[in-house]
TrEMBL record:
Protein name listed in UniProt: DUF2314 domain-containing protein
Amino acid sequence: MSWDVLLIRTKTNREAMDEIKSENIILFSQAEIAREIGKIATELGAVCDCQDLSWQNLDSDSWSIEFNVGKNAETESVMLHIRGSEPKEVLTLLPVDLNAWLIDCSTGEFIRPGEPTSFERWRAYRDQILGRNEM
């Protein structure tokens, strides 16, 4: 079970959610995502596995992120499947470095630096479903 976040980039990165049009989306390349994951891994002391450019991974001791980039060399968006703790540093670095936005799939809202996400609500739901009493 993962907390899912969508990475997307538009020409202005200023549109409201319901105003994003496909003609304004700037594509990501598989290689671009791999380079960024490698950079973040180095900065945070995490481990990256980008051998399969369609499904890349970034792991630390407290969280794991799978980047579903897709089989095509370029893509309109990248889905992040996050497990473990909330990777706040990654959620801060990724959109800045790639000039992109992150969308919280649990709420359909943009993730904004310094503002709370739905991660804690998702984790409580996950723990309830799995029968855990962790917080």
